[in-house]
Amino acid sequence: MTDLSQIVKAYDVRGVVPDQWDESLAELFGAAFAEVTGASAIVTGHDMRPSSPGLSAAFARGAAVRGVDVTEIGLCSTDELYFASGALGLPGAMFTASHNPAQYNGIKMCRAGAAPVGQDTGLADIRALVERWSDEGAQEPEAKPGTVSQRDVLGDYAAHLRGLVDLGGIRPLKVVVDAGNGMGGHTVPTVFEGLPLELDAMYFELDGSFPHHEANPLDPKNIVDLQARVREVGADLGLAFDGDADRCFVVDENGAPVSPSAITALVAARELAKNPGGTVIHNLITSWSVPEVVKEHGGTPVRTRVGHSFIKEEMARTGAIFGGEHSAHYYFRDFWNADTGMLAAMHVLAALGGQEGPLSELVGRYDRYAASGEINSTVDDQTGRLGAIKAAYEGREGIAIDELDGLTVTGHDWWFNVRASNTEPLLRLNVEARDAATADRVRDEALAIIRG
After folding, report:
1. CB 3.0–4.6 Å: which of 63, 221, 259, 396 could bond 68 by disulfide?
2. Strands 279-283 and 300-304
C-alpha cells in the first residue's frame, strides 16, 4: 500500500518527484477526487514544473475513468484555477508545489466555487481511497467514461480582476515585477496589458528549475534582486510573486519590504470604503494594526487561526469582505473567498496611483509596530517546549494567554505567538511590540525558553 503519511498535508498533496509522487499515484488521486466530490465535471490546471503536465494529465485520466468530464485550462496560476472553479462552478485541482524547491510537486484541490478541501472536508477521505485502491489494484471504469477537453481562461481571469479594481485612471507608475520564473510570468502580462504601468519584467521565463532564485519571496534572500532593480531604475514599487503566483510581496520605492500586515490593512481600508460596516478576517499573527485599521474604518475584525482553510471557512461563516494573513495570502469575497495575490497587488497599485506620495509614505499609515518576523527553532519536543513557555508566563500580572493556534502570550505593549510546524520539528515564533527595544527583549526571552 502506498504510504501517504508524508505527502498528504492539511491543504494539499505534495512530495518529491518521482520518489513519492508519480503519474500512477496522480491517476488514483483523480479517481478519488471524483468519488469524494461526487462531481460530474471538474477543472484542472498546472504550473511550469517539468512534471506538472504529466501529473495533471494523469489526474484527468483518473477522473474521466470515473465518468467525470474534465476541463483542462493548462498553464495557469493557482488563483487562475480558483477563478475557473468559481466562474464555471466546478471542483478544481491545481498541480503545483508553490514556493517549494524544484524537485517537489503536488496538488491544491478545491470544491466548486473554490471552496477549500481540507483535512476535515474531504482530504482525509481522498487519502483513504487512494491508499485502499493502491493496495487493491486498478479501479473498474465507469460504463461511460468522461471526456477531457481544453479551455483557455486567462483572458477571462484578467477581465474579472480588472472589473474589481479600476486602474485606468491612476497616474502612470513604474513597477518592477519579479516572477521568479514562476506563473506570474504567465499572468502579469495579460492582467497589466494596456494599463498606465511601465512594467520592468524580471525572470518572466517559465522555468521550473528556478535558475535565478527560489520562487519563495518570504525568504529575504529571494527578493534581493528585486530590491536592487527597484532602486536602479527608480521604480515606484516592486512586486514579487511566488511559484504558483497566488501570493504577492511588495517592496517600496527604496527597495524596503512592505509588511504583509500593512498590505492587509491597506486593502481592508479600501474594501471597507466600498462595503461600509463589513467584516474583515485576519489570522492571529497579523499586526495589531490590522484590527485597529478595520475598526477605524467602521469594520468588524475577526481573528482566526493560520491557514487558508480556516480563513475561507470564517469568510463563508461571517460573510466577510476580505481576509489577510502574515504570509501574504489575501482573500476576497468577490473572488469566491479565495486567495489571490494579483488582486491584492492591484489594490496597492490603485492606492498608490490614486495619490501623489511615495509608497513608503502611504504604507507608513498602516505599519505601526516593531515586529520580529518569523523565527524558526528546531526542537526535540514541540509539546514540551510549548508547555515550558506557558508555565513561564502563566500567572504573571498583566499577561494574557490563549491557545487558539499554538500559544499566544500578550502583555501591555507586546505579544508573541509560538506555533508548531506540521511537517518539521520546528517551533515558529512571531513577536510584535510598540517599539523595537521591547520587541527585541521579548524575542530574546521567548527564544531562551524555546531553545532551553
Report:
1. 63
2. parallel
Tally of CB atoms within 10 A around 252:
22
Report the alpha-carbon angle 319-260-82, nearest 5. Answer: 50
Choose the catalytic residue: 77, 85, 98, 261: 98
Find the Cα–Cα–Cα–Cα dihedral 92, 98, 100, 106, rounded to 10°.
10
Per-residue pLDDT tens, the chain, 452 aa: give them: 344 444 444 345 666 666 678 899 999 999 999 999 999 999 999 999 999 999 999 999 999 999 999 999 999 999 999 999 999 999 999 999 888 877 889 999 999 999 988 777 888 999 999 988 887 765 666 668 999 999 999 999 999 999 999 998 999 999 999 999 999 999 999 999 999 999 999 999 999 999 999 999 989 999 999 999 999 999 999 999 999 999 999 999 999 999 999 999 999 999 999 999 999 999 999 999 999 999 999 999 999 999 888 899 899 999 999 999 998 999 999 999 999 999 999 999 999 999 999 999 999 999 999 999 899 999 999 999 999 999 999 989 999 999 999 999 999 999 999 999 877 899 999 999 999 999 999 999 999 999 98
Torsion of CA 353, 302, 282, 318, to 10 degrees: -80
462552478: which residue's cell?
A: 89
Active site residue 372: no
| 420 touches 450 (CB < 8 A) | no
**Interatomic CA distance for residues 185 and 113, integer angstroms:** 25
pTM of the shown model: 0.92
17 touches 103 (CB < 8 A): yes
Phi/psi-derived region of residue 281, left when phi > 0, alpha when psi is between -120 and 50, beta in every other case: beta
Instruction: Give φ, ψ of 334 to 5 degrees.
Output: -75, 5
